[in-house]
Amino acid sequence: MLIIIGGLPGTGKTTIARELARKLDAVHLRIDSIEQAIFGSAPTNMSLDDTGYRVAYAVAEDNLVVGRTVIADSVNPLPITRDAWVEVANRARVRAVEIEVTCSDADEHRRRVEMRTADIPGHRLPTWQEVVSRDYHPWDRKHIAIDTAHRSVEQNVKMIRAALLWRMRRGLKVR
């Protein structure tokens, strides 16, 4: 299964993705880690465009083909990136489940963005203004929506696991 987690910075995507990966013994692919590794090996003025996503698509497909569950952790702001993740799952002949992580409490979201520290050496975190002005398109198809504003990581992971189990039992394909 390919679990595609997206949402604006500071909503809790990576925290949830890590815990879900631990619970499911899944591969966790984080775009921020991939992009920072590429930045670290390239000239500082290089534009990545979609390089990090393309690397992640390839690594995800390799792991899916050998039977691993993969959790893709990225902002995933555009329909084109969401479609590309689903295509990875289709090529690997596995189920794709899309999850959007939000934080409906703007004050809490802002606090998280402004208080967090980078956990990847050399990674520059976005400012609150960069987060709210980001080009982020609403999801226009079925997906699991998780609002982290007033729930713990454990509660959110439990909700996701229940939704995944429900879909698996019914043989539903979520795109």
Fold and architecture overview:
This protein is an alpha/beta fold and 175 residues long. It has a single domain, classed as Rossmann fold. The chain is 48% helix and 14% strand. It has seven helices and five strands. It has helices at 13-24, 31-40, 51-65, 79-92, 106-115, 128-132, 153-170, and strands at 2-6, 27-30, 70-73, 96-102, 144-147. A five-stranded parallel beta sheet has the order 2-3-1-4-5, with helices on both faces. It is globular and about 45 Å long. The model has no long low-confidence stretch (mean pLDDT 91).
Q: What is the third-level CATH name, the topology?
A: Rossmann fold
Strand content: 5-15%
**Order of neighbouring strands in the sheet with most strands:** 2-3-1-4-5
Shape: globular
Number of strands: 5
CATH hierarchy class name: Alpha Beta
The total count of helices amounts to 7
What is the level-2 CATH architecture name? 3-Layer(aba) Sandwich
Report the major sheet. Answer: 5 strands, parallel
Distance between the termini: 12 Å
Weakly predicted, low-confidence segments: none
> Order of helices and strands, N to C?
EHEHHEHEHHEH
Tell me roughly what share of residues is in helical segments.
40-55%
The fourth-level CATH homologous superfamily is P-loop containing nucleotide triphosphate hydrolases
Give Rg in angstroms. Answer: 16 Å
